[in-house]
Structure formats: C-alpha cells, structure tokens
C-alpha cells in the first residue's frame, strides 16, 4: 500500500485554517482534516521488493480511465471516459485524461518506462472530488483532483506538471521508495517536482532555457499574489500573498529548515535538490529530460539508493550515475558543480538534518494536525 501524497503543502493549508475569512478557514480545515484521515489509512509504505508486479509484455499505449466523483468522498466514482473514447464535454475529465497520457508518454519515450510501475500499470483518475476541495493527491493507487475553491485555487487538473508530480510519487513508490521523512522525504518531493516539470517541458517541446521551472503555474486564482506553488529556478519566489503567506523554500543549505512539522520539512527543503537539478539542466542546455533527466532517472531506478538516503547520498548517487553514463565530461562536472553551489557536500548515509547549516524553524502546523505528504 502506498503513501498518501498531496500537491498543496500543509503549511499553506495551516495558514489558511487560521484566516479571518470563515470561508477560506473552513475550506482549509476541511482539507487538513480530510488529508489527515487519508494518511492514517496509509501509514504502511509499499515495500520496494513487493511494489512491482511480475514483469509482463507491457504495451506502448496507456490504459487510462477517468471517473467523476460527483463532489463526493467515494472513490473512484462514475466512469466517464475510458482509453480511446471520445473527449468529454467536461473539461476537467479531458485535462485529467490528457495529463495521464502526457505522463505515460514522457516516461515511455524519454526513459523507455512503461507506465509508473514499469510494467504498464493502468492509470486511473477521479475528478470533481468533494466540494471546493483545495488539493490533488496520489493515494498509492490512483490520482484524485479537487475543483478548488475558486478564491485561491482553481481546478487542480489545469497544470499538467501537477499531474506528473503526483504520478511520479508512484514511480518513486515502485523504485527507490524514499522514506517520507526529513531529507529522504524532501528528495521524494523533489523527484516529483523534477519529473513533473520535465513532463510539462516534454509535452510543450521546451528546452531548459524556454521552461518556466514552476510547479503549479495556472493553479492560483486571479488576485493571488503569486505564480505557482514552487519555483525550481528560484526557490522562495513562487508566491508572496497575505492569505497564503510567503514561499518558504530555500535554494541552498544555508536556508535549510529544521523541525518536526511537515515530516521534517519535506515540502520546504525540497527546494534545495530542486535547485540543484535546475542548475544541472541549465548548464547542459537543450532538452532537460535528455541528459539531466536521464541522470536523475538512472539514480531513482538504479537500485543503489537507500530508502533513507539524505541529500549527500543522493548527490553522490547522481554524480556516479552521470559518470557511469557519460564519463567525466560536462554532465559529470555539471552535477558536481550544482550540488556544490547549493551547499550539499560530503558522503551521505541516512536521512537527517545537516550539521551547522544555519537552519530556520518550520512553519507551525495546526494543533492536533499531523502533516505527512504532499
């Protein structure tokens, strides 16, 4: 059974839950309570050895099914579009269907991976989940999308990188199975951001310098002071809004955030490996999924990462992957330079907080709430 992963960081929902606006506070509390219940049901992560089914002859075509939850809590809901069916009159259904397809196509064409498990796993999504639900999530088995409240968040099927992000939690579940805690949890989040962005770039045919490197662009409602949920190019600049607060992500270890909230800051500290990947992609140029993405994919799927790998261990693994595939040329040098720039050095072992990194405290969470994934 997989972990429960949402796209909106809990520190945003926590802040909104304390809003003076009863509508905003109520919607945020509802999302927090819902997500806490779902996480409680999924505390046992998928074991790496038991995650993937037996190998079979996987098709080069996706097997997608989209359901309409009808603003209720029951999943998956009513089947509204199957693989190969004509487009629906419902834009959310079509965006979910297309996003599943874009994710499948990127993994297949860029990395010869058949669906998220590597063996052609059918892709399932439910749209119109609950009323005004401000999140989207991967629950270990399928994608689920809320419609947003229209005040702060729009329909969660809009950004294709959000779909790619959540499905990549499934890829991680079936491969490195990174623990969702501290630095390994931040790496889990970062890997989803990396491939979510690459899926968007692949779909648009963008080069590294053409990409916006934003996660969730188009998701924030008009009037919100921000452009996305996160920025890989410039962590900490995605939003600065009186209701949402200011983007707390650091781009280097100098800003590493310590504390126990959000499973040790998995949504905040992911900005550091995110920025490292951006630096590699920018240094190498061209299509980021080809070289930078290949190195990260080799690292994720190569079998050398411990489930509790910290930033230093991941950095060492990416350098080894670059050297194994490309030698000690530009790719290897770009990887080493990027990790050095963000302040990750040394050989890693297990997950944990860095020593002497001038860390800040995590954003406070709502009393009684346990934040776990996103």
UniProtKB/TrEMBL annotation:
UniProt EC number: 3.4.24.-
Write down the required cofactor(s).
Zn(2+)
Which segments show compositional bias classed as Basic and acidic residues?
A: 61-89
Q: For this UniProt record, give its keywords in alphabetical order, as a comma-separated list.
A: Hydrolase, Metal-binding, Metalloprotease, Protease, Secreted, Zinc
One cellular component term (GO) for this entry is: extracellular region
- What is its EC class? hydrolase
Compartments where located: Secreted
Question: Which GO BP annotation is one of this protein's?
Answer: proteolysis
Instruction: Indicate, by first and last residue, each region the UniProt record lists as having compositional bias (Gly residues).
Output: 345-355
Q: Where is the composition biased (Low complexity)?
A: 45-59
State whether keyword Hydrolase applies. Answer: yes
Gene Ontology molecular-function annotations: metal ion binding; metalloendopeptidase activity
Residues of the region (Disordered) are: 34-91, 342-374
Active-site feature positions: 166, 267
Specify one Pfam family.
Peptidase_M4_C
Q: Where is the Peptidase M4 domain?
A: 64-173
Residue ranges of domain Peptidase M4 C-terminal in the record: 176-344
Q: Does the keyword Protease apply?
A: yes
Family the UniProt entry places it in? Belongs to the peptidase M4 family.
Q: What does this protein do?
A: Extracellular zinc metalloprotease.
What PANTHER family would the database entry show? NEUTRAL METALLOPROTEINASE (PTHR43579:SF1), PTHR43579
Protein name, UniProt field? Neutral metalloproteinase
Q: Which organism is it from?
A: Actinacidiphila reveromycinica
- List the taxonomic lineage: Bacteria, Bacillati, Actinomycetota, Actinomycetes, Kitasatosporales
